[in-house]
Design brief:
Shape: globular
Number of helices: 20
Helix content: 25-40%
Number of strands: 18
Strand order of the largest sheet: 4-13-9-3-8-6-7
Strand content: 5-15%
Largest sheet: 7 strands, mixed
Structural class: alpha/beta
């Protein structure tokens, strides 16, 4: 073994060891790591397999280029956001142009460039060492033994994947689509003693694999490994892109044939802000005792909407209903054959932006991303996901200013915020930690612990206070840059917060707190002069029974856009507005206005159970 201590060999081994140690960086940061021994075992098996198949490092070192180049990003995300590279981050790379990347990085681009050059030099230095030595080649018969064992394990794992497993808990199944939130808060169902279903890709009918023969390697654990897990993440990203393309194909030829009745070149800006997990009764603008909206309450042209209902309490399902004509009762179904209000605005001559602090790709976000891709300019700014540390919503302000500075006279800008998504205390800076005790500074608090109910509620209110500041900044920016402007805000769903004796928190619980959402419209003085009838109708309908289904039609009406089969009876800015039945997904499709609210949780139960 003395030959391993030679400089070239040490360079190779220590480099590969450094790559393998990347998944264990959280331990150095004092954070727990799921199944570290399984992860270590996967690393050993994967390196053994690669070395056995390729025989010498110089033959497989080329395959490690992506791992070397992605290494700084992986560590950066671990340190600042508590997670590694995901399909979402790969989506950002795919959607971001070089110009946008330079604008986002600013002066950091030089530091990033220096790091990338250093990593490239490291790879070249290691490759040179691998080419110069033949003593690390795997020559003897043990190599073939290793290849044979790997082949057997691969066949067994493939058989189990295709035909399932006997005598184990049932395959993990997601909660009803309504209960699966955009943060991937889902429940796993288990049924001890039943067989786990296979993929059934071949169509063959063979017996399930006995549980004792199961290869104990989970795809998630392999995806977390480094550098080999990058292949899994890349494949997941490919599947998301393919699914996104399939959804796009459904509406590729769709057109509203929209236009403004009296087109002109007068500069005009319409802004749509989509809120996240915001609850109606926690806004002082709506009567809450704590002053959570000190800035919005001072805006003369803010008109709160008192009775807006979201049909379903999950982002991936509620947002399509807000921004398209997708009916509420179809919200649980994948895809939609029409496009969103972004396309209607584009057809009417507006340049469109989708600026998001949510994530772009992932199991719970594709239905929103497919609509976002309609925009002329798309920017996803969230690097940390939902449940980890992430950027505050203020990161959207600079892209907003750049959009407003664009020479196009007509602009539609969508801001998709992270709002009050859990962890609430990570949604705002320290300066907004007003109500205490709070969860600020506590990493991964156990939200199921009722003992932290006061801290949880205080942190939630602090996140609303920050939302108030952010929205006020957006309005101030519009005032300075665009005389003729308007803004609509609506939250995708609310939250249950251990109210009274209720032992439920978050969303997906069929409670009134999750369906009743805050919403308002702001308009500039010039907008009121140009569209006085719209403002009259807005004020007349501010207490009407509205639903998120009304917002597509109202948003198109805000820009005074018409199309052949429009339905102005759904726009609360129109004198043709009419009330409609409001359905929510609570124990089946429930008529919200014919419902009783049960207990402190305020569960929504239709009195007649009408569908």
């Amino acid at each position: 073994m003395r030959f391993l201590l030679r400089p070239a060999h040490l360079v190779i081994l220590l480099s590969y060891l450094a790559l393998s140690a990347v998944p264990f960086v959280p331990l150095l940061l004092g954070k727990p790591l799921d199944q570290p021994w399984q992860l270590a075992g996967i690393e050993v098996m994967a390196w053994t397999a690669v070395w056995a198949i390729f025989k010498r490092p110089a033959y497989f070192h080329w395959l490690l280029i992506p791992a070397f180049l992605a290494l700084p990003t992986e560590i950066y995300l671990f340190v600042f956001y508590g997670q590694g590279i995901s399909t979402h981050h790969l989506g950002i790379l795919a959607e971001t142009s070089p110009r946008e990347a330079l604008e986002f990085l600013g002066q950091k681009v030089w530091t990033m460039l220096a790091v990338m050059i250093a990593v490239a030099v490291w790879w070249v230095f290691t490759f040179r060492a691998a080419r110069q030595t033949r003593e690390m080649d795997w020559h003897d018969n043990s190599r073939w033994v290793a290849i044979g064992m790997i082949a057997v394990l691969a066949c067994v794992a493939g058989y189990g994947y295709e035909f399932g497993l006997r005598g184990v808990a049932g395959a993990a199944s997601h909660a009803a689509a309504k209960g699966s939130s955009s943060s991937s808060e889902s429940d796993n169902a288990s049924a001890p003693g039943k067989a786990a279903a296979g993929a059934n890709l071949t169509g063959l009918k063979l017996p399930a694999l006995p549980h004792w023969a199961h290869v104990p390697i989970e795809s998630k654990a392999f995806g977390d490994s480094w550098p080999f897990g990058l292949a899994v993440r890349g494949y997941d990203f490919y599947k998301e892109r393919r699914y996104l393309a399939e959804l796009n194909e459904r509406s590729a030829k769709f057109s509203f044939h929209a236009s403004q009745p009296e087109p002109d070149k007068i500069p005009e800006v319409v802004v749509m802000v989509i809120g996240e997990s915001s609850r109606y009764d926690r806004w002082s603008l709506n009567g809450y005792s704590r002053e959570t909206n000190p800035l919005l309450s001072k805006e003369a042209n803010v008109v709160p909407l008192a009775d807006v209902i979201s049909a379903v309490s999950a982002t991936r399902l509620s947002v399509p209903v807000i921004i398209s004509r997708k009916p509420a009762t179809q919200s649980l179904k994948d895809g939609f054959s029409e496009k969103s209000f972004l396309t209607a605005y584009k057809e009417a001559g507006f340049k469109t932006w989708w600026l998001s602090n949510q994530i772009s790709f992932g199991q719970y976000d594709t239905p929103v991303s497919v609509f976002a891709k309609e925009a002329d300019v798309i920017q996803f700014m969230n690097l940390g996901g939902f449940t980890n540390n992430s950027n505050f919503d203020q990161i959207l302000l600079d892209p907003l200013k750049l959009a407003l500075a664009d020479p196009s006279p007509k602009k539609l800008i969508v801001l998709h915020t992270l709002g009050s998504h859990w962890n609430y205390s990570q949604r705002h800076p320290k300066a907004f930690d007003q109500w205490q005790p709070s969860l600020f500074g506590i990493d991964k608090p156990v939200y199921t612990d009722l003992k932290i109910k006061p801290q949880l509620n205080n942190s939630y209110d602090n996140s609303i206070l920050y939302t108030d500041w952010f929205l006020s900044q957006v309005i101030d920016t519009l005032k300075l840059s665009s005389p003729l402007s308007s803004l609509m805000y609506v939250a995708d769903h609310g939250q249950t917060l251990y109210d009274g004796a209720c032992r439920l928190a978050f969303h997906g619980h069929n409670t009134q707190y999750e369906f009743h959402v805050p919403a308002f419209m702001w308009y500039s003085d010039d907008y009121a002069v140009r569209y006085p009838e719209k403002i009259t109708q807005l004020k007349a309908h501010r207490k009407s029974k509205l639903a998120t289904e009304n917002f597509f039609h109202t948003l198109v009406d805000m820009g005074d856009i018409r199309y052949p089969d429009d339905h102005l009876e759904w726009s609360f800015l129109s004198p043709q507005f009419k009330l409609h039945k409001r359905y929510v997904d609570s124990y089946g499709w429930t008529n919200y206005d014919n419902a009783a609210f049960k207990g402190d949780c305020r569960e929504v139960i239709d009195k007649s159970k009408s569908k």
